[in-house]
Amino acid sequence: MARNLYFLGTAGSGKSTMVYAFQLWMNSQGLDCVTVNLDPGAEALLYSPDLDVRDYVNLEEVMAEQGLGPNGAQVAAADMAAMNAKELADVLETFETNYNLIDTPGQ
């Protein structure tokens, strides 16, 4: 069973950059890891997520369909992602790795 490492912090605090750096370090140490992006509002990431919530929830679509601004859409998208939590967990379990690096939203 893989160990989950959650990267928490406020928006813009460097969580995604830390996930990227930690992934590089783990790989340099011969440690296998999977990267997970749980931020539907992430516009650009330094790493390529192995599992990406943006494949399930599109923040721009949420804003347009529900008439919400970025912050309201982030909350609504988080609710939608939570409804897909079982599916996301099932996909995550298909990876054979020792570590899951989980990048969380900062809002």
> Averaging pLDDT over every residue, what do you get?
93
Radius of gyration: 14 Å
Order of helices and strands: EHEEHHHE
Shape verdict:
globular
Total domains, how many? 1
Count of strand segments: 4
Number of helical runs?
A: 4
CATH class: Alpha Beta
How far apart, in Å, are the first and last alpha carbons? 29 Å
Largest sheet entry: 4 strands, parallel
Strand residues, percent: 15-25%
Oligomeric status: single chain
CATH architecture: 3-Layer(aba) Sandwich
CATH topology, which one? Rossmann fold
Point out poorly predicted stretches. Answer: none
- Proportion of residues in helical segments: 40-55%
How do the strands and helices of this protein lay out in sequence?
Layout: E1 3-7, H1 15-28, E2 33-37, E3 51-52, H2 59-66, H3 70-83, H4 85-93, E4 99-103
Parallel strand pairs: 1-4, 2-3, 2-4
Describe the 3D structure.
The chain has 107 residues and is α/β, with parallel strands linked by helices. It has a single domain (3-103), classed as Rossmann fold. It has helices at 15-28, 59-66, 70-83, 85-93; strands at 3-7, 33-37, 51-52, 99-103. It has a 4-stranded parallel beta sheet, sandwiched between helices. Helix 2 crosses helix 3. The longest helix is centred in the first third of the chain and has 14 residues, at 15-28. It is globular and about 45 Å long. The termini are far apart.
